[in-house]
Structure formats: structure tokens, C-alpha cells
Design a protein that fits this description.
- The complex is a heterodimer of chains A (346) and B (265).
- Chain A is built from twelve helices and 13 strands.
- With 346 residues, chain A is an alpha/beta fold.
- In chain A, the strands form three sheets. In chain A, strands 5-6-7-3-8-9 form a six-stranded mixed β-sheet, sandwiched between helices. A four-stranded antiparallel β-sheet of chain A has the order 11-12-10-13, covered by helices on one side.
- The longest helix of chain A has 18 residues, at 194-211.
- The N and C termini of chain A lie far apart (61 Å).
- Chain B has 265 residues and is mainly alpha-helical.
- In chain B, 75% of the residues lie in helices and 0% in strands.
- The longest helix of chain B has 32 residues, at 228-259.
- Classes of the chains: A alpha/beta (346), B mainly alpha (265).
- Chains A and B meet through helix 3, strand 5 and helix 4 of A and helix 1, helix 6 and helix 14 of B.
- The complex binds adenosine-5'-diphosphate and magnesium ion (MG).
- Adenosine-5'-diphosphate sits between chains A (16, 18, 42, 44, 62, 64-70) and B (261-263, 265).
Chain lengths: 346, 265
């Protein structure tokens, strides 16, 4: 029983009907078509298979428009899939809505589920009644969340007067009041500053450890995935292109390291070229350089040894590529990813 | 059932709290609504100065009609305004947040638009009309009046079902503001004595957009212009039309939901 999956999607397919462009038609026909357009299906999800076990914390990533939100909408019962099967906790989401939704929590990062004009507490009270949470249980959980997410000063403020970070903390508390067994988070950290992201991560991590619920998270933040998820699923153009541990993802698809070096002397170009022969240099100044190393060509250790032996180095940082880089890399598989954002050329 | 009642109560409390935020507009709107009513009453007074009877209606029964019409608007605008703007909830993908709750999404979509302001606005009007009705000595049978109140309430539900069904077309057309505007433009018919209109229109107002039950029928019954058996027959007819609309509404909703495409996110 313990390992029977909580979420199971088989050949999940969803197409949206989008208007066909009326081409080569006369003006009258165009006008008619603007009112009654011919529709054609646009396939946003192309047969995705997914199994998530109890207590897993899945990072669901992919470029914009790859179908992450569409997946979440199908799994939460908002959308009825075009084809395929979905079973979450033994329910068919769009069919068993009333029973099913008691067991899940949902956050759509780009839409608020709270009531704009009313104090946060009013939304919480509404959700208490929507989920029929017993009063004592409600008070206990609200108190707990108030402490962990520092909601104290926010509860009596209207939602429209909260900052994005404050609002997101409230959304999270609201989505957990009824102790869901599965939590779906669609970009909960979108648009937040580093501090706000960090506090949300810390909370999610702690809550997941404590309650052992199953969580599916979409994000563009590597840190979210690194601190929270034990498994990553990558989506590209509506297809699953990777499913496994984060380390495996990086090893398999992104055998690169970004190396930044600061020298203690101004080097002449010739000496530098010799020392750096095996590396692709992307940016350099007189006393610093940034480069990307393909670890299939040379190990990081060898390169560092080489550098330190032939040059006088003040500082050296080696970093893993960002999530965006990883995703982009998998997406146009084969290309060597670019190093992080340029920091002004010397 | 208890949970649903609790929920409706919660939504009402929320609308009260939200209403308090708009005290300023409330005052202005109340005055405006009162002026509008005064003009309507004046209009009918002028008509009945020339003729004492108008297709079976008198000044007195028109006053009662105005009372029920105010009541109808008050209930509809307070509790069912959400059925009139539902197409936007669907079109903008706001339905998502109601679909992930263990409560009928229709109840949440309508309930979260409860707005106590229209009820308060029309409180003054209702009281003024009642005072006027008593003062001019209109022939009111108070037991009939109470029964008629029940009819008005159900008529609101009926009109709301017609509205939501029109709004569901958004699932197919991507928007249905035209349908919504059309239905909304029928709303003022509530204020008029519908039995004075051509028979075809009366049929439409009975079966398609059942507004005769909103004020016309209740006013005729309250002033004794129609008998109790006739009223009973009308009530049965109304309930039958209501059931038909309920099933139609439900079927369209279910088909629409299966096509729902959400938006954003
Ligand atoms: N309601 C909709 N109607 C038409 N196309 C849509 C709709 N929602 C999403 N899409 C399209 O489906 C694809 C996947 O969208 P989405 O699931 O939102 O991607 P993601 O969340 O990964 O950014 C995109 O190409 C998007 O344009
Ligand atoms: Mg998305």
C-alpha cells in the first residue's frame, strides 16, 4: 500500500481549440470569421506519463509554454484532458470534484485565490467553511501558520494592500488549512525577491518534512529545486524529456561548470592562451576571466591544477549552471550552454 | 445541507464587510434610486389622471407592482448579481479557483459576488412604497401579499437560471456578453404591468424569460385581481418552468465545463 502511487497520469493529452487564421479570404468572409472562427486543436500536452509516490516532492520544470500549468490544471480537475487517464488518490479529478478537492491544496502563483477587497482573515474563514474544517482544528492550524509564515500583521489587512511576498505567504497558509494530502504549487515563487523566496522555501521544506504530504511544484528557480525536491521532471513542448534525480539530470545533460578566475597580475595574452588551451573562454579582462568547462573533455580538478600551476590566482569560483541553463540545454540538446549573465566586460 | 447554509451565511457576512468599504457610494446610490422611483410613480400618476383603468390595472395596483419590482431587484442584485457577470469569470479563467474547492463552483461564483449594497439602497424605496400603498388605501389582501412574496423569491431564482445559462455559452463562444446584455436589457420589464403587453410577448415572459412571476403576477394577486386558484395554477406553472430551466441549466453547465479551457498561469 505504502508505495502505490498518489498521482498517476497515463498518456495525458490536452489540446486547446485555437482560431485558425483566415487566409486568402475576402473582407466579408474575414469579418464573418472574426465572429465565427474555424477552430483547430493546439496540442499543449502530448501524452505525458507521470507517477508520483507518497511523500515525494517533485520539481516540475520546463521552458515557458511547455505545458506545466496545463498539467497542473488537468491533475487538479480544472481541465478535462482530451485523452489519457488521471488518477490522484484514487479519484478522477474532473469527475469526482467534490470528494477529490477536499484532499488537495492548490496554488496558482499568477492568480490569487484570496479575496481582493477583504481582510486576509475573511478568506481564511471562508475556506474554513468551504472545507468544513472544525473550529478548533482551524484555530490550531491558523496559529501554527501565523507563527511559521509570520502572518500576524497581515491577517487584518485587505489582500490588495499586501506585497506579492506577503500575499504568497497568505496563499500558502490558506491552501493548507484543510490539511491536504497532495499539494500542487504552480510557480509559487514567481516574481518574489530573494528573501521572500527563501522564507517560502524554508516553510515548504519544514512542512513537507513534518507532514510527509506529496507535493508537485513548478518553478524556474534552481534553488527551489535544490532545497526542496527529491525528483525532477522536465517538460519540453508538452513532452516529458527527463524524469529522475536532480544530480542525475545535471550529470547527464549538463556536464559543464562555470569557472571564474581572478589573477594577481596582469597577464599577457600569449601566456593565458597556453594555460587555458582546453577551455572555451567566454569573457576575459586583463586580470580576470570566466569560462565554461565541458567535464567530458577534462575534469574540473585537472583544469584547476593546471591553472594554479601556471598562473598566480587570487580567487577562483566554480559553479553549476542555473536551472534556466539546464533546461535550455536539454531543450536544444547538444549545444554548450552559455555562462551566466554577463557582469560587465572589462 | 448545514454546511451549505453555513457557507451562504459566511458569504453574506463577507459581503456586509465589503459593503462597508463603499459607504460613500451607498448614500449617493440610495438617493438616486429613490429619485428614480419617485419619477416612475409620478409617471403612472399622470397616466391614471386621464384614465382610471388601464387594461385591468389601477394606480393602486401599479403601486403594489412597483413594490414587488423593487423587492425583485433588491434580491436579484444582492444575491444573484454573480449570475449576470459569470461569463467574465469563465472567460478570464477565474473559475479555476472555484473548481478546486469541494463546493459547487456555481455557488462560489455567485456567492462570492453577494453584495449587500443594492438591498440597502432599496430599503428606503420599499418602505416608502409600503407607506404610500397604505396611505392611499390600496386594496391589499395581506395574506395574499405574503404568498406573493414567496413567488417573487422563486422568480428571482428563475431569472438567475436563465442568466447563468446564457452566460455558460462562454464555454463555446469564448464570451457571451451579447447574450448577457440582452438578458440584462429585459430586466426593466419587471417594472411594467406585463398583462398589458401583446400575447406573444407575454408567452415569452412566462416560459422563456419568466419575468411575469417577478412582479406582475404577485401584484395582481395581492390586489385581488386574480383569484387564489388562479394564483395556485400560476405557481405550479412557475415551478414547472423552474424545473425545466434547472435541468437545462445543469446540462449546459456540465457540457460547458468539459470544454473549459481556463486562461493564464
Ligand atoms: N486557455 C488556453 N487556450 C489556448 N492555448 C493555451 C491555453 N492555455 C495554455 N495554452 C497554450 O498551451 C501551451 C502550454 O501552456 P502552459 O501549460 O500554460 O505552459 P507553462 O505553464 O509550462 O508555461 C502554451 O503554448 C500556451 O500558449
Ligand atoms: Mg505556467
Amino acid at each position: 500500500m505504502a508505495d502505490s502511487p498518489v498521482i498517476r497520469a497515463r498518456a495525458l493529452t490536452k489540446s486547446y481549440l485555437v482560431p485558425k487564421r483566415p487566409n486568402g479570404a475576402g473582407p466579408l468572409r474575414k469579418l464573418w470569421k472574426s465572429f465565427f472562427p474555424d477552430l483547430e486543436p493546439f496540442v499543449a500536452l502530448k501524452g505525458v506519463d507521470l507517477e508520483v509516490g507518497p511523500g515525494e516532492f517533485i520539481g516540475y520544470i520546463g521552458p515557458n509554454g511547455s505545458g506545466k500549468s496545463t498539467t497542473i490544471k488537468c491533475l487538479t480537475g480544472v481541465l478535462t484532458p482530451t485523452e489519457g487517464e488521471v488518477d490522484v488518490l484514487g479519484f478522477v479529478p474532473w469527475r469526482d470534484r467534490a470528494e477529490y478537492t477536499r484532499q488537495i491544496g492548490v496554488i496558482f502563483g499568477q492568480k490569487t485565490l484570496l479575496f481582493w477587497d477583504l481582510a486576509v482573515i475573511e478568506s481564511m474563514l471562508l475556506f474554513r467553511d468551504v472545507y468544513a474544517v472544525p473550529e478548533r482544528e482551524f484555530r490550531r492550524r491558523l496559529e501554527e501558520f501565523t507563527e511559521l509564515l509570520e502572518l500576524g500583521p497581515l491577517l487584518d489587512r485587505p489582500v490588495r494592500k499586501l506585497s506579492l511576498g506577503e500575499r504568497m505567504r497568505c496563499e500558502i497558509a490558506a491552501s493548507l488549512l484543510h490539511s491536504p494530502r497532495v499539494l500542487f504549487l504552480d510557480e509559487p515563487t514567481i516574481g518574489l525577491d530573494a528573501l521572500a523566496k527563501e522564507s517560502i522555501r524554508a516553510f515548504l521544506r519544514r512542512y513537507h518534512e513534518q507532514e510527509g504530504l506529496t507535493i508537485l511544484l513548478t518553478t524556474h528557480q534552481m534553488e527551489d529545486i535544490e532545497t526542496l525536491c527529491n525528483r525532477v521532471v522536465v517538460l519540453g513542448s508538452g513532452e516529458k524529456i527527463f524524469d529522475g534525480a536532480l544530480a542525475e539530470l545535471k550529470a547527464r545533460y549538463v556536464p559543464t561548470r562555470e569557472i571564474k578566475v581572478l589573477f594577481s597580475e596582469v597577464l599577457d595574452a600569449e601566456r593565458l592562451e597556453r594555460a587555458l588551451a582546453p577551455l572555451a573562454v567566454h569573457r576575459r579582462g586583463n586580470d580576470a576571466l570566466t569560462t565554461v568547462l565541458d567535464t567530458r573533455q577534462a575534469s574540473t580538478g585537472d583544469v584547476v591544477r593546471e591553472l594554479t600551476a601556471s598562473l598566480r590566482i587570487v580567487d577562483l569560483t566554480i559553479s553549476e549552471p542555473t536551472l534556466e541553463t539546464v533546461v535550455k540545454y536539454i531543450y536544444n540538446s547538444g549545444a554548450t550552454p552559455e555562462p551566466g549573465a554577463p557582469q560587465g566586460r572589462a | 445541507m448545514r454546511r451549505y447554509l453555513r457557507l451562504v451565511w459566511r458569504l453574506t457576512v463577507m459581503s456586509l464587510k465589503a459593503g462597508i468599504e463603499y459607504r460613500g457610494t451607498l448614500m449617493i446610490m440610495t438617493v438616486w434610486q429613490f429619485c428614480f422611483l419617485a419619477l416612475t410613480v409620478l409617471f403612472w400618476k399622470v397616466i391614471f389622471l386621464r384614465t382610471s383603468q388601464f387594461a385591468g390595472w389601477t394606480f393602486h395596483s401599479v403601486l403594489v407592482l412597483q413594490f414587488f419590482s423593487q423587492l425583485f431587484s433588491a434580491i436579484f442584485n444582492t444575491f444573484f448579481l454573480g449570475s449576470h457577470v459569470l461569463w467574465r469569470v469563465i472567460n478570464q479563467g477565474k473559475l479555476d479557483s472555484f473548481l478546486v474547492r469541494p463546493v459547487d463552483p456555481r455557488l462560489l461564483a455567485i456567492g462570492t459576488r453577494f453584495n449587500i449594497v443594492p438591498a440597502i439602497e432599496r430599503l428606503v424605496n420599499g418602505a416608502a412604497l409600503l407607506g404610500l400603498i397604505v396611505w392611499v388605501g390600496a386594496p391589499v389582501d395581506w395574506l395574499n401579499f405574503v404568498l406573493a412574496l414567496g413567488m417573487v423569491t422563486i422568480a428571482v431564482l428563475l431569472f438567475s437560471m436563465v442568466q447563468v445559462t446564457g452566460n455558460y455559452l462562454t464555454f463555446w463562444w469564448g464570451s457571451s456578453d451579447a447574450v448577457d446584455e440582452f438578458l440584462d436589457s429585459l430586466f426593466p420589464f419587471v417594472r411594467y404591468p406585463l398583462t398589458t403587453m401583446p400575447p406573444g410577448l407575454q408567452m415569452v415572459m412566462t416560459f422563456v424569460v419568466p419575468l411575469v412571476f417577478a412582479a406582475t403576477m404577485p401584484a395582481l394577486f395581492t390586489t385581488g385581481a386574480i383569484s387564489r386558484p388562479a394564483f395556485l395554477a400560476a405557481s405550479v406553472l412557475m415551478v414547472a418552468v423552474g424545473c425545466a430551466w434547472w435541468f437545462l441549466q445543469d446540462a449546459v453547465w456540465k457540457r460547458g465545463l468539459a470544454r473549459y479551457e481556463s486562461a493564464g498561469g
